[in-house]
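Minutes, project check-in
Item: structure for the 186-residue chain
Input as provided by the requester:
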Amino acid sequence: MLHIMTSEPEQQIGVGTQDAFQRLWTPHRMAYIQGENKPTGPGAGDGCPFCAIPGKSDEDGLILARGRYVYAVLNLYPYTGGHLMVVPFRHVADYTDLDGPETAELAEYTKAAMVALRAASGAHGFNIGMNQGTVAGAGIAAHLHQHVVPRWGGDTNFMPVVGHTKVLPQLLADTRRMIAAAWPGA
């Protein structure tokens, strides 16, 4: 039996019993909380997921587009539907470590991501940025990545504010197909 909290006196609800959405389960977040797929060290050979992703198929890696120096990939733990990242193929930690062509392509892919997200989802705006270093909030500080987070009017509802939960209306594989199809030049 599952125990749920309600405003009513305590009650027991069996597995599969409707509970009027009093509880939302997000078990996939446990991998993120426990640090699964985080690098074990500073080098490219130390389990870096951003170094491993390009070796996968676009579908398996959730890759939206590949360039010469960078690729665009859906965030496995998104803030909103369509949250993606632009990642250099080269394993570098700091933005200042990118060379000129890498910096230029990262900027071009960020622009292309915005175009694709507007076409695919009608995004009204974007949060774009990168966290440099663990102290600045980088989840994987050893490999630079820039976040492109689509936003819509009224998209900040009670779930992230009160429930500390993000509600995504679409599976990541479906989101990947939709954005990849809208990618400029696709």
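Outcome recorded: The first strand starts at residue 2 and ends at 4.
No further action items on this chain.
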